[in-house]
């Protein structure tokens, strides 16, 4: 019988405030694209450059084509008679029946929008409209216009001031409007200094991914800015149109109206409108053609192309922002929001297109590009190395070796460990070639050959050259089953130790992850005996190479199926390995060099900077990647202790670590990583983190582990009949589905949760923003991952979607 529990939203009780909480969700990729409604946003290179004059001309030209035309001024400040939307309507003449003009937020004080909002709110700062509400109101308005347009239509959304002028909350317009991702028209500056202002505005738009379709400005016979800007932007594929400036404003209202009307009548801006239409059509054609072209040209990773049924199975991502993709729907020729449910293969730290990370990359690109690194240094690399040594490498690491990605970082770690072992034991020639590693079954360290050789043979991530070199222990695992944390002991362990029980049930996760407190428990002694006897037996076993390194994915083995390992077992394993070599030199590695693969789990993916403090045992080598650069560019860092470094230290060149990449210590990656660290430090002190941590604290059992996922939701899911087990740590949620054909090739999790790919899964209310969810599975294991700054409301909606899908499947 299916467990009867309320939805996740009611479980946590935080949806009682009503729809206001739900509406904040779509500060994300919500690109507004429609086949029948061509939309452009108007940005200005500066204030007072003629945005409204030129936008009015565009509106009139669109209306002459017998299109229905919509004009929106999201924010207006100043007297109503001077309002831009009023100007548009006033000068549409006989075309008024086709033109609709509106303003969403109107303030009568003629100051910057952020100041006008502050003055209107007075001392009650909470009344200031947040970006999420502001953007959602624009999106909703545009959606209504799209529904209202009976045939082909045009829409213009005019901003206020320059590109970096603040909006109501104080966020600059470029940042605030970015989730809408509307194609842009830039109004250039024709005045003195306007060349620089226009190019600067364009580059600011470009850095945030905006598509600039046209540049308009007034013609000035003295400064002649358009003469310079036209060829400059032609090289960049953008058409510049210069038009005559309007006549000076007359003091008499009637006279001013007449002269302005005459100006508009004489202005021929129709070619610009036609060019914008052509750009719109080109974009639709491009998006329509991408699935077929992709099927013909691409070879996807981890995809069986024989199972791809056709173009409908290809996800066309037009843009991404925050935690959302904007994906193209060919059936409706529109863009839809899709939550990036796997943090784009576990890389995203602060969502997509984070401006601080983008600017960091641009900063390093402009200063360095890429520079050679051997026997050289540069500020981004040096600063990052020092940050890593003071962060995850604190008190044990002395050196940082940079490489391209997690797999190559692990290749380097293996080279370091094997050399250190060989040097200490004075191995030469063939003896060095026959070394292996000790690890855990289900581990995975990357797709390069050496990293694959450090994994068990039966793994699916192999190739014809794969030659597993080592021995892999079956680890005890942790999960939440029927609402309680359970440690599942592998058959090899229970048989070896003569145990009748294969599970250990706990009352709290805090106890499971209290490694120091559990070291003196009977279970720790069971682990110690099992590991010791196994290692002793390996000395006599045939077919097992000499073990030269211990390689671990601490706490969670990700690609192997989101396997949450009992941390006590990993700690005891490290201890046993080291205790077997008491005669090693003081301060050096003992037993075997120990490698922690923190590519996936490190840098707060699991809610902690490093797993080292929780395990209570430092490695000799560790690897960080993925979150290291916030998901923007590839970079990996292999940290090593001084004793590992000394194994390569010599006056002989051949004894150096002869490993490197063309882009070693890539300045862009290092600078972005430094910025990522700054953002993480700020986020770790945020109210959202403190609130999430508080939800996982029990009064009688304070815990160092926590998750962004709601604990009541996790427990409720664990009680469903279709679910075998659940686990959550930090950003990660893992759900193992009951399936007799469990394993990587299983499709059960994908099938069970298929409905969350639908936009309206989770709620039928038109008031709640709709989005689909992009997610991936590992056989019968479905996993979901947030960024470090994903809004709690987003997670609550996703929990409801998951809950509904699992309930309906039962």
Automatic annotation (TrEMBL):
<dbReference type="InterPro" id="IPR015421">
    <property type="entry name" value="PyrdxlP-dep_Trfase_major"/>
</dbReference>
<dbReference type="GO" id="GO:0030170">
    <property type="term" value="F:pyridoxal phosphate binding"/>
</dbReference>
<dbReference type="Pfam" id="PF13500">
    <property type="entry name" value="AAA_26"/>
</dbReference>
<dbReference type="GO" id="GO:0004141">
    <property type="term" value="F:dethiobiotin synthase activity"/>
</dbReference>
<dbReference type="InterPro" id="IPR027417">
    <property type="entry name" value="P-loop_NTPase"/>
</dbReference>
<protein>
    <submittedName>
        <fullName>PLP-dependent transferase</fullName>
    </submittedName>
</protein>
<dbReference type="InterPro" id="IPR049704">
    <property type="entry name" value="Aminotrans_3_PPA_site"/>
</dbReference>
<keyword id="KW-0032">Aminotransferase</keyword>
<dbReference type="GO" id="GO:0004015">
    <property type="term" value="F:adenosylmethionine-8-amino-7-oxononanoate transaminase activity"/>
</dbReference>
<dbReference type="Pfam" id="PF00202">
    <property type="entry name" value="Aminotran_3"/>
</dbReference>
<keyword id="KW-0808">Transferase</keyword>
<dbReference type="GO" id="GO:0005739">
    <property type="term" value="C:mitochondrion"/>
</dbReference>
<dbReference type="GO" id="GO:0009102">
    <property type="term" value="P:biotin biosynthetic process"/>
</dbReference>
<dbReference type="InterPro" id="IPR005814">
    <property type="entry name" value="Aminotrans_3"/>
</dbReference>
<dbReference type="InterPro" id="IPR015424">
    <property type="entry name" value="PyrdxlP-dep_Trfase"/>
</dbReference>
């Amino acid at each position: 019988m299916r467990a009867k529990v309320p939805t996740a939203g009611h479980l946590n009780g935080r949806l009682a405030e009503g729809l206001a909480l739900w509406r904040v969700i779509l500060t994300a990729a919500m690109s507004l694209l429609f086949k029948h409604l061509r939309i452009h946003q108007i940005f200005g290179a500066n204030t007072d450059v003629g945005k409204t004059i030129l936008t009015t001309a565009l509106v009139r030209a669109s209306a002459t084509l017998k299109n229905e035309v919509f004009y929106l001024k999201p924010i207006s400040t100043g007297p109503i008679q001077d309002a831009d939307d009023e100007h548009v309507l006033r000068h549409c003449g006989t075309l008024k029946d086709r033109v609709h003009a509106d303003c969403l937020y109107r303030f009568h004080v003629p100051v910057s929008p952020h100041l006008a909002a502050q003055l209107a709110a007075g001392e009650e700062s909470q009344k200031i409209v947040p970006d999420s509400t502001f953007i959602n109101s624009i999106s909703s308005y545009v959606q209504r216009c799209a529904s209202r347009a009976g045939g082909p239509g045009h829409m213009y959304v005019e901003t206020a001031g320059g590109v970096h002028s603040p909006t109501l909350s104080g966020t600059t317009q470029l940042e605030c409007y970015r989730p809408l991702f509307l194609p842009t028209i830039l109004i250039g500056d024709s005045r003195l200094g306007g060349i620089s202002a226009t190019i600067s505005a364009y580059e600011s738009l470009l850095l945030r991914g905006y598509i600039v379709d046209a540049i308009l400005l007034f013609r000035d016979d003295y400064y002649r800015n358009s003469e310079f800007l036209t060829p400059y932007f032609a090289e960049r594929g953008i058409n510049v149109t210069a038009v005559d400036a309007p006549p000076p404003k007359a003091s008499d209202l009637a006279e001013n109206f007449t002269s302005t009307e005459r100006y508009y009548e004489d202005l021929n801006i129709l070619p610009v409108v036609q060019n914008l239409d052509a750009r719109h059509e080109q974009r639709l054609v491009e998006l329509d053609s991408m699935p077929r072209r992709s099927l013909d040209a691409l070879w996807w990773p981890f995809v069986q192309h024989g199972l791809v049924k056709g173009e409908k199975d290809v996800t066309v991502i037009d843009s991404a922002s925050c935690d959302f993709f904007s994906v193209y729907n060919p059936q409706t020729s529109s863009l839809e929001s899709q939550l990036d449910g796997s943090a784009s293969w576990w890389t995203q730290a602060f969502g997509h297109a984070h401006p601080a990370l983008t600017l960091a990359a641009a900063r390093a690109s402009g200063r360095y590009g890429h520079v050679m690194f051997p026997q050289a240094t540069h500020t981004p690399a040096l600063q990052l190395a020092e940050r890593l040594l003071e962060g995850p490498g604190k008190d044990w690491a002395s050196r940082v070796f940079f490489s391209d990605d997690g797999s190559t970082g692990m290749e380097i770690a293996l080279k370091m460990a094997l050399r250190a072992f060989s040097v200490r034991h004075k191995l030469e020639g063939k003896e060095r070639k026959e070394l292996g590693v000790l690890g855990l079954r289900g581990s995975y360290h990357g797709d390069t050959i050496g990293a694959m050789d450090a994994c068990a043979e039966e793994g699916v991530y192999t190739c014809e050259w794969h030659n597993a070199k080592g021995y892999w222990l079956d680890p005890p695992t942790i999960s939440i089953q029927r609402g309680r944390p359970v440690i599942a002991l592998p058959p090899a362990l229970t048989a070896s130790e003569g145990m009748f029980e294969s599970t250990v049930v706990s009352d709290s996760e805090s106890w499971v992850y209290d490694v120091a407190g559990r070291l003196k428990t009977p279970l720790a002694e069971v682990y110690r005996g099992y590991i010791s006897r196994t290692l002793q037996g390996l000395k006599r076993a045939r077919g097992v190479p000499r073990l030269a390194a211990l390689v671990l994915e601490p706490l969670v083995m990700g690609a192997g199926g989101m396997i949450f390992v009992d941390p006590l077992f990993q700690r005891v394993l490290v201890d046993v390995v080291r205790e077997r070599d008491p005669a090693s030199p003081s301060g050096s590695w003992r037993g075997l060099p120990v490698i922690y693969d923190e590519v996936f789990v490190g840098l707060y993916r699991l809610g902690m900077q490093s797993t080292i403090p929780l395990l209570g045992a430092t490695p000799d080598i560790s690897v960080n990647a993925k979150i290291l650069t916030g998901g923007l560019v590839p970079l990996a860092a292999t940290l090593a202790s001084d004793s590992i470094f000394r194994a390569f230290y010599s006056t002989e060149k051949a004894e150096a670590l002869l490993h490197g990449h063309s882009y070693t210590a890539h300045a862009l990656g290092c600078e972005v990583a430094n910025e990522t660290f700054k953002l993480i430090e700020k986020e770790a002190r945020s109210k959202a983190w403190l609130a999430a941590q508080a939800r996982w604290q029990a009064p009688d059992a304070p815990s160092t582990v926590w998750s962004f996922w709601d604990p009541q939701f996790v427990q409720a899911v664990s009680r469903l009949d279709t679910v075998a087990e659940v686990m959550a740590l930090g950003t990660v949620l893992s759900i193992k589905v009951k399936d007799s054909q469990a394993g990587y090739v299983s499709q059960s999790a994908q099938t069970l949760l298929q409905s969350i790919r639908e936009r309206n899964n989770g709620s039928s209310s038109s008031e709640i923003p709709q989005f689909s969810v992009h997610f991936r599975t590992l056989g019968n294991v479905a996993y979901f991952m947030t960024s470090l700054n994903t809004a709690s409301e987003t997670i609550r909606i996703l929990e409801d979607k998951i809950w509904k899908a699992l309930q309906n499947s039962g």
